[in-house]
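Worked example

This section walks through a single chain of length 161. The input is the sequence exactly as stored; nothing has been trimmed or padded.
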Amino acid sequence: MAGEKRTIASRGIPSSESLYFPPHGSDEVRRFQDNSETPTRNLWNLEEVVNYVFPKKYQEKYHEVAVSFLKLLVQKVHLRGGDISAFVSENNVSKATFYNRVLPRLRRVGIIKIERETLVPVEGKRKYRPMRVSLSKTFGNYLMKIGDSWLAIVDDARSRE
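Given that input, the structure is written out below as tokens.
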């Protein structure tokens, strides 16, 4: 009917747009606060952080590939297309898995940044856009903003008590 607003049937949050949060008291999460809810000083390592994006429990292969790739990226800070294709072939990773699942998800959540430059074609060759991948702080900033906002809400509520 004309004028009727169409809605999408709810089937929950698509997995490509969600993060994994195991229960805060589970064995999967290393202690992050003391009994009075004060944050501890320990930091989570790369594998523990990646577990929120690619849970090892449910997406073991993606988790392994993402951790390996991010370890390389942490060492080199920037990777170009040639470095990435070398990583894929040296680690026997499926191109489809890496380029269609792992890389886009890391980008979408803000762990990596992908930049492309357009190079003007040399005579007789096509134009191409080499890729440059680097680490991004967006993931951390995003989660810190959520966390800081929640802490402010809790503090405000408790201060009115």
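What to look for: Residues 37-140 form a domain with the Arc Repressor Mutant, subunit A fold (CATH 1.10.10).
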